[in-house]
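User: Need the bound-state model for pyridoxal-5'-phosphate:
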Amino acid sequence: MKPVKVFLDESEIPKQWYNVLADMPTPMSPPLHPGTGQPVGPDDLAPVFPMNLIEQEVSTERWIDIPEEVLEKYLLWRPTPLYRARNFEKLLDAPVQIYYKNEGVSPPGSHKPNTAIAQAYYNKAFGIKRLSTETGAGQWGSALSMACQMFGLECRVFMVRVSYDQKPFRGIMMNVWGANCIPSPSDKTEAGRKILAEHPDSPGSLGIAISEAIEDAVGDEDARYSLGSVLNHVLLHQTVNGLETQKQLEKIGVYPDVVIGCTGGGSNFAGLCLPFVRDKIHGKEISVVAAEPTSCPTMTRGPFAYDFGDTAQTTPLLAMYTLGHDFVPAPIHAGGLRYHGMAPIISHLVKEQIMEARAYNQIQTFEAGVQWARTEGFISAPETNHAIAAVVQEAERAKEEGKEKVILFNWSGHGLVDLAAYDAYLTGKLQQYEMPEEEIARALQAIDGLPKP
Ligand SMILES: *Cc1c(COP(=O)(O)O)cnc(C)c1O
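Assistant: Bound-state model below.
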């Protein structure tokens, strides 16, 4: 029998996270204080994050120990299996081997608890009693709810209104894990009330929900804010995944030619690929591909610029690919990955051409996801389907070129709470959508006048 899965023993779980800042070939542009235009210091961030996480955010140590208490919780579902997608390979009939890391086996069903657990632990250790956060479709909100419950913290989640109404199940998961889930924009914050006054039936956006969650956290000394993607410490925590994968591939004597992940804020992609990026920086020939939607084409069509992380302009200015901080994706978009910006680490590596970004339209991604489900069985998160579309494209190229290729990608989560999006696809309600040039130009007005990296 041909092997399908590679497991690690629990004792083989990585004991340290990998920090790519130690190996960056060129310096990154620092986050700036929007008032002074100067780089932000740890004290500027202290009302928002606990100091132990701020230290991680700016650390350039290559290896950072994973605390015992975090490892203990990771072991509930980690190490996750590495799969070979033999059935999908057969369907594609191309000279490729396809490996995928299954992050859908965590309790909330995605990679997100890799950082949620760590963030809850560090906040608890710093003496914080409550975390406030935002969520789009609800994966992050549910992951943080579970993590807070495990470490005895209260959790408040501002959930983008349109998702709150259309996808009630993740809100229920949050309630089961003991959290409070509030539709955003809400009347609980200044930022929310301001939006509601202008647009009473606003569908909300991630940028608005972030503003609400930060305001809520900063107004309470015992509370801090928590972000599920984008920031350096979040990407750091996710590297447990790529480090496991390297051990698994080593066991079967395989090294990938291409590493692929879907990108919203960049965390699941970073988690898998950064340990391989380290190899690339030291000379390995490998391509690293980020897959994003054509309806939120941050890296493929946005500029590399300084921009705010949120709509109400409360965060520091981050140097990143961006569509402008007041960007709201078209309502017909069903595939997630809606954030207007991109992790500064990922943005920098794309700018330096160490990785590349490609965009896929939603019909393409659901087509790939349905083919996947009909061969490999697992129903992917709509976000994950972008990575699968990129795998299909790589396989087609390999076939055209007659070149053998080993493809590795991150199966970031399952889609069992996203079936309404599959229903829309299967009943022909989804359309192909590319952001029109005028719309991009309009969105980018938001960054006019900000400093340039
Ligand atoms: C949240 C999420 C993403 C996108 O976020 P990143 O920070 O870019 O990883 C992708 N896949 C799944 C399953 C998610 O839950």
